[in-house]
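User: Assemble these into one structure.

Assistant: Restating your components, then the assembled model:
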Amino acid sequence: MTSDVGTSQWVAAFRRRVRRWYRLHGRELPWKEDADPYSVWVREIMLQQTTVAAVVPYLEKFLDEFPTVTSLAQASEEAVLRVWEGLGYYSRARNLHRAATMIVEEWEGVWPRSADAIECLPGVGRYTASAIASFAFDEAAPIVEANTLRLYSRLLGMVDDPARASGQKQLWAFAERVVPPARPGQFNQALMDLGATVCRSEPLCEECPVRLNCQAFRLGITSRVPMRRRRARITELHETAVVIKRSGDVLMIRYSEEGRWPGLWGFPLISRARGETLDQPTTILDLVREMRARGIDIEFCRQLGEFRHGVTRFRIHLQAADVSWVDGEWNGGERAEWIPIDELSRRPLSVPGRQVAQWIRKPA
DNA sequence: AATACGGGGCA
DNA sequence: TGCCCAGTATT
């Protein structure tokens, strides 16, 4: 019956159907058997707002490089960011590193077992804490994330905005009711697999083991539940990455905490007006002036390349300028270093930064 | 309550 | 292209 969503009878039948479906159709994820708290933690952080396909190679490399929480704590933040490079949301990597230090120094490397305690770690919110507690420590902790949010919303026939406080409250309350005392981690995994493969954005209801438990299915509103959120408008940015060379070295800055890519290294970026390009003398004059304002006299050589890159709600139209140093020191505010070109691979760069670095080696 | 934070996968 | 992704922290 669907009229009794959440009652104990409903929950019992729901759990049975989900478990059975999972035995037959659950995803074969590479970490399926790995319940070690450290690796659960690392992968849950990586999976925040990031697809499984994107995470797999990064997780393998990360655990290879930092196999234990101690090794992670002992590493430099830059080394951690270097392994994270290209995965995005870099504050995750920095929080991971900080949290490793906390675990080692304050807790002597021993994990707290409860979700509440785990949630004290930086970068760990309610979902991630529950995931770790249920996967690694068999705590019956409820989860709500992208996959389960869709699933629960539809089961409940929830027409409220799931992002709002009242929607969130209903979803977490539902999660608390369905998570079972026995093997809660496996059950949570089953819920996510069901959400990911069947209760997708465009749901495959004919394959769903719990469609008769689903209010949205019964009402024929699965395509409108959960309510979609409208996206933020994209802002176009036109920027120039300035590659300043001085006898085999290139000037790199460490992006500050306030702006984009905090903690990553990169090239000085200046903005252009829309339509300005490096084949225009006025653009080049602007470039020279902008760099002089940051302490460095340069001579423009040529354009290195150009491409488009999306970062959160911005789309950056990037051109790179190959220039040579004439005089002066960087006083643009950021930490700066002259780095031999063949050592760029050792620094953590953003994706556009890495692209520009490739152009330096092999001009496009 | 709204916004910032990245980048890739896929139709 | 546009939508979506095992969210969290900050304003």
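The longest strand of chain A covers residues 296-311.
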